[in-house]
Structures are given as C-alpha cells and as structure tokens.
Amino acid sequence: MLATRLRLWFGLSDRVGRRAYFATGLGLMALKYLSDSAVVWAYTGRVWSPLDYANPVWSVREHALQGVPSAVVLALAVWTLPFLWVGIGMSVRRAVDAGRSAWLALLFFVPYVNYLLMLALSLLPTAPRHMRWGTERAPVLGSGWRSALFGVAVSLGLTIPTVLFSVYFKKEYSVGLFLGTPFTIGAITANIYNSAQPRSKGDTAVVVLFALTLAALSLLLFAAEGGVCLLMALPLAAPVALLGGVLGRAIAVRGEEPPSHSGLAAILALLVVAVEPRATAPPREVVTVVEIAAPPEVVWRSVVTFPELPPPTEGMFRLGVAAPLRARIAGRGVGAVRYCDFTTGSFAARRAHVVRGADGPAGVLDDLRRRDRALDPRARAAAHQNAGREGVPMRATILCAALAVWAACKPVDKTPPGSEPPAAPTTLAGPVGVVATKVLSVEGFLTPESVFHDSAQDIYFVSNINGSPTAKDNNGFISRLRPDGAVENLKFIEGGKNGVTLNAPKGLALLGDTLWVADIDAVRAFNAKTGAPLDSVSLATLGAVFLNDIATTATGALYITDTGIRFDDVGAVLHPGPDRVFRVGPDRQVTVAVRGDTLGRPNGIALDPVGKRFIVVEFGGKSVLAWKPGDKAPTVIAKGPGGFDGVVIAGGKILVSSWSDSSVASYETGQEVKIITAVPSPADIGYDAKRSRLLIPVLTANRVEVWQLP
Fold first, then answer.
1. Beta partners for 347?
2. What phi and psi, each to the nearest 5 degrees, are found at residue 155?
3. CA distance 136 to 346
4. Fewest CB within 10 A of the end CB: N or C in the chain?
5. What is the mean pLDDT of residues 71-93?
6. Among candidates 522, 553, 546, which has minimal Cα distance to 628?
7. How many CB atoms lie within 10 A of CB 427?
8. How far is CA 198 from CA 137, 143, 147, 262, in A?
9. Can you give the pTM of this predicted structure?
10. In terms of C-beta density within 10 A (0-12 exposed, 13-18 middle, 19 or more buried), how is residue 222 classed?
11. Rounded distance, CA 292 to CA 425, Å?
C-alpha cells in the first residue's frame, strides 16, 4: 500500500485520474499548511491564515515568517521541495490522462494560474482516447549530438530574453526567475534531446548541465549579469534544472507528444516572470558610527559625498562585481537622500536621525510629545527607518559594505604642513571604554519600553506601550523573546484579552513566577509562565502620574519610580509632579518611599545588592543617584549627559541608557565610560547575566537590540 502511494506521488509511470489527483492534492495541501502554520505559531504566536498562506505575494509571506529563525525558514523551504515535485509530477500525468498536453502542467509554477490549473485538472474526466503514457522506451546508445545541440540552442533562445525582461524591465530578481528559468531550460533541453531517440538519464543530465552552463556564460558575455552573481546562483539553479530535465525526458520517452509542443515551456518561462507579483523589499535600518579627526564640513564633503572615481580596472570588477562610481546627496539634514552609484545600479539611503550630544531633556521630552500625538504606531516606526533600495537589489548589495569602508578610510589630509591635526569631535561626554558588540536586532514590536530576562525560563519579556505612554487604551502587551532572537509569542499578555487590563506597560520586574508591570498609575501582576492575570495594585489614590520602572527586594517589596509627567490636549509636555518613588509591600500596602525635586523626574531604578542601596537615574536631570530606604533624599554618585532611562547592575557595573546622546555608559567609578553609542531612544534596558548581554529596547524604532558585553 505504501509503495503504491509513493510510486503514485513521486514516480512518473502511473496514470493519475481526477479523483486521485483531487484527493492527493487536497490532503497534501492541508498537511503542508498545517505544518508550516504550526511552526509559525510556535515561534511567533501568530496565526497564519489560509488566505494569507495561499497568497503568492512574497511580502505577505515575509510578514508571516517574521520572527522565525533563518535556519527554520531554510528548513521550511527544503520541506517544500517534495510537495513541489509531487504537484508537478501528478499534474503532468493528470493532463495526459485528460487528453491534454503534458506541458500544460508547467503552469503549476505560475502564480494564481496554478490554482486554476489544479481546479481544471480535478474536474476534467479521463479522455476516451487519451494520449499514450506508459513504460519508458529503452535508451538508444549513441552520441545524439544533433539533438543535444538543438536542445541547447532552444534553451539559450529562451534564457536570454527571460533574464533581460526580468532584470531590465521588471528590475528585480524574482523567485520565478531563479526557479522557473532553470527548470524550463532543463525540461526543454532534455525533451528535445530525447524526442528522436530515448537517451540515458546520465547523458541527459550532462546535456542539461551543459545547456545551463552555456546560458550562464551567454549572460556574462552580453553583460546581462556578473560572474560572481552567476557563480552564487549556479549551485541553486543546477538541481532545479536537473528536475526539469527529469520531467522533460519523461514526456519524451513515455508520451507521444511532438517536440514542437515544448514551445509551450518557452512561453511559460516569460509568463512566470511577467505574472509573478512584484516584491517590495522592506526598508532596512542601518546605523553607522565613524569617528574622524576632521571638521564636520570636511567630513560631509569627503565621506558623505565624494567625486567621480576612475573606471575600475581590477579583475574582480571586470567579472561583474559592483564597483563604486560616485556618491551624491540630495537635500540636507533629516530627509536628505544619499545615492551611492555603482556600475550595476544605485543604492539609496535617507537620513532619518539627527543626534547631538548637546540635546538635553527638552529635546527628549519633545520626542515623547511627538510620539504621544502620533495616531499610528506603525507610522512612527516608518519615520525612523531608512529608505529602501533602488535599482537591482542583488547587484547593488555586493559592495555596499566595501564602499562604506572605502569612503570612511580614504585618507583626507587637509592639515597644513607644520600644524597640529584638528582635535577630535567632542560628541561623547566621557571616555570610551571597551565597547560592546551587537549580536541581535529584532524588529516587529510596538513602542517597546522595557526588556527583562527571566533566568529561570531563559526568556526575555518585552513590554510594548503600543501607542501613547499615558493613554488608558487597554492595548498594551508583553512579548516573549528567545535569546536566539526568535519571537516566541508577540502578545503573550495582551490588554483587552483573557481578562487582562494593560494600557501602557513600561518597567518590568520578577518575584518568583510573578511578573510585575508598571502601567501608568497601577502595577499589575501576571503569571510569568502562563500570562494569566494575578493581581493589580492601584496607586491612583496617592496621585501616581507616570509610573515608570520597578525594582524588587528579597522581602517581596516593590519600588516604583513616578516620573511625574503628562501630555496636554495639544501634545505639550507637562510636569505636574511630584517626583516620587513608591513602595508596595508584600501586604500590598502602598507608601511613598522618597519624594522631591532632587529625584529629577526619576526613571530607571535598580537594586545594588553589594552597596545595599537603590540606583535611580534622572530623566529630567543629568545625575545618577544612590538612595537607601530611610534616607530623606538621594545622593549624586555620577554625572552624565542626562535624559537617562534604564539602569541595570551588570557584573558590578552600573550601566545606564541615555536618550540625550543615544548611548549606554557605566558609572560605577563615578566617571562616565561609554560602552555603546548610536542607539537612538534606548529605553529601559535589561541584563542577561547568563550570557553577559545587554538588552536594549529601541522605543521609537520598534525593535530590541541585544549587545554582547566585553
């Protein structure tokens, strides 16, 4: 029974009736959908609907797979291959059984049209006088070079127009181009080679690979493609072409169709490329930090733009690798677009941020005000992303990194002889220590404010405000992020669902299996393993305004900062105050632990177990504070750029994030030492002690970055 099924699915000898075709297709489609959607659910917590699954537009599939590890996505692609072969193989035999040309089965590769094909083949009855399809004829030994050359010539006549149409007219490298073209080359070459006399499978494979190689060389000869790109594509195209060769040979040696019908396959290649929906690449944000000992006007002229370069002469570039020609910029400041022109296309990047070390808390509060007035959180994320690519993506990507290094390292000597070199820019408020290394950047969050590592479960919790930080809209949520960067469950705890109230969640803390969350004027408790709501303590009766961060103690008490800010009807930032730190005891009794202007609009708070004190950082000032229960006021232990948000104790170091200069620095010695720079809007940071990693929610960019500490 099993052998019969496998021969029906994967073989090419048995005929296929409409009942077997429909039942097999429906069953395998259901199996494929259930398995793929289960994987997406396991890693992201999202439901991949059948309609989205059936949509061939790549951007829809990319959105569904967001948060799934790349290795798992590759495994899903490999898992797809046997289903594709079963689909195309059974479609060939079903078409023959219905009295139609076997070549019609190649419409299986055409988006949207493939659904109509499967429906038609499921309805068409077996033809009274169907075309011959049976035992494979014995191969004839001999060179067959005439048939081979004719098949190769036809495939070349197909390949060049198809690639030119895709690259120069549609300006994209589509899935249809990478799969449809080599498959069709193999099918046509093998069919023509075996049409007059059956040839062996080995000889057919050699001819197919020869045709594919000649097609690649012809593209290189006519400068339609670069050598490096072809070398990278060949290992992917060869197996696909061989599969096409198996199908084309089977049609020739098992059926009775004339070779002229293979012209349908030539039309198919162009049809696949033409019909396939255009994929829109999502914008990618790239942050580059280069410190150059030169005045800004020199840097702007010599790094951001540079004049025309001489034509490349190196062999690498003559093989087709993209070579830089010039860089130009249109506009100034935020919104300016820089174009990096290559021999094969242009790369465009829009300047989306201006970060100045002198920007104080007023600038930070203005940014908060703008976010409060924005109606769509997705629009806020888009405003902080670079423009997408222009031109041909694959070819324009090869040397982008090389161009950045070349431009940044090109010597620019503007110093007169005998004079001292210009002083380095003083954009950093303190010395730079051994810097951390970014290992992960995970997107897809909605105004992420805090990240906390649950060491028992080895999971990162991420609080998502999802809108205004002061609106009681009950749409906030908590995500579960794995240390490998996979979003295990985007909305693990979601406001408005399952009895959960969660408006604008910010600081997170853990007591046993209980996750505590600061939420405007209340702190809420949830089961850290199930997400079920457990408790809620309101601080509204004590006038809580903007609860921000939480620290816990061994006794089970909570200490919560109140930054004391609001936004009025037109988005202006108000500070009704007062600045306070609340205490919620194990008995849920709420008291004011400390208050006063000396707290400087307190934001982050962390328990320092060695110093037996709390570290509090000022959002409205520039001080890092230490405070012990019972003290009337905190003491200043360090100064920095201000606009502080999160604070963690990491291996004895006091690490603090700052909006004012987009950095994270250590302050345990009383002096600021930069650890991380150029991270805009770093909110309430977390610490993974198991891996010595710093977890940074980038609030305005809707992502979480993970940095390896030195």
1. 340
2. -65, -35
3. 52
4. N
5. 84
6. 553
7. 14
8. 7, 11, 11, 16
9. 0.47
10. exposed
11. 8
